[in-house]
Write a structure and sequence with these properties.
heterodimer; A: two-stranded antiparallel ribbon; 6 helices; B: alpha/beta; 8 helices
Amino acid sequence: MEIIVCLKQVVDPELPARDFAIDPATRRQVREGRPLVISTYDENALEVALQLKDRVGGKVTALTLGPQGVAGDAIRLALAMGADEAVAVDDPHGVGLLGVEKARVLTAAIRRIGRFDLVLCGCESADWVERVVGPLLAEALAAACVTFVSRIEQTNGGLLVRRMADEGFHQLEVRLPAVLSVTSDETNRPRLPKVKDIMTARRKPVQVWPMADLSGTPADGDAPGVEVRDVALPERTARCEFLPGDAAAQVAALTQRLRDLKLL
Amino acid sequence: MTGICIIAGALDGKLSRSSLELIGGARMLQGPLGQEVAAVLLGHGPGLAEAAADLHRHGVGRVYRCDHPLLTAGQTDAVLVAGEQVVRRTGPEVVLIAADTVGRELAPRLAYRLRAALATECVELGVEDGAIVVRRQVYGGRALATLVVRTRPAVLSVKPHALDVPQPAPVAGTVEDVSVAIDAGALPTRVREVLREQAELGLEDAQIVIGGGRGLGGPEGFALLAELAKQLGGAVGASRPPTDAGWVPVNWQIGQTGKTIRPALYIAVGISGATQHIAGVTGSRTIVAINRDPEAPIFSSAHLGIVGDYREVVPALIAKVKELKGA
């Protein structure tokens, strides 16, 4: 099976609040000096792809967007985890903030990669959380679409997938080609590459495509219908009051406070 | 192109709560835009009559009813085909969709097909100087993005539980049956089975919620939380690590990916306070955090903090609550 996994690099979402900042001019998160990681669920997507390849064979291609140099770490990690090839779309100016804009570039890159049975991405990015890239790719590529998938099995002529749903889970039969967005569960925790894998990854092919060479990118299309006016940090209202003493004293103080608030 | 249209799902046979929440969103746009609110009601079976009446009760006058055997739980492909046909026929300026299991697939796909402006997971909708302005949480709830919707039509999805179900405001309404053509053989996905996993009863509606995290060390800790929840009359949930580890079912998860809760009291036990989790609990009126690490980020979101071992604190709390209730 030919699988393409879309990976986004983001500033580590668990960075302490004091290191979190938005540049008001670009409305983007300040990245300088902050560690970059692969966005949480994208790693799960890669893990699901690798497990599927281990079972049924095939090839896994990692795809990422970003200025050259920045994309390198995500690509290296993906190859060390077991991806066979990697493609980085080099965009010196950074693609727009919105998923609509990113999906257009990813679509153009996937078309250039050519053959695929399955495209996987994370169910949401750690930064903008729009949850739109998978469904938009599916539409643009005329592929089946399921989001929040945690498990994938190959069946005769298609896939059987498990989707996280409001009331539990759905089992769905899915035709190929398909674009699935992946959520985490106990079966798809990202593997840690071994030293040997990291060495091997250095010899795997990485293609860097200048964004200007891709057709169908945002420069060619309509501007997105929504505009980001600002990104604001809400005023912190909570001030934590620590309850002193040993467990008995803490619990006594807590229950008293809860009674005052009519919660007990 | 006029009007505000909500996509009202009754895929389980009755109108979903998140569909009612959309009415609240539609009303925020209706006044300033001076537009009618209509609903496209999608589902199958006798429950649709009651669902239409429920929409009328909440002030939606015009209901386009689509009754089709493929419009059942989780069938996004069928919902998309039906929704697209009705929306093209009725031509609304704004389409509102609940970002639930089906809606989060539906909204971007419908927007793509309609070449519509798209904003998802909105927590606020409004009109400022004649323009539709929406707000959504970004960076795990650390920031709030304001988006201006510039083009029409627009497809906006609303995060479930972000808006309140509006008070009833009955109107004498109409129901127009709309037939849609859905070719079952052409749908690329099919729901084979709906597995209802035992969710903690009414996690999203509970007034008191106890959440457990990685710090509980294993599934056993959740038994203690269940006892505390029982004494307080609350529900138990979890952050992502316990659900990823399989200690508790995935649908116990509270946070950006899981459920959004807005209880009167949230007690976070052994939860470090990853932004992913915090995004789902910021609407809680009072947050109490119990954690061994005084530096844990959860304390910066909490109102009351207890630094200590939950194995000592929680049993003491259970005993104290029992004692107070007995008194």
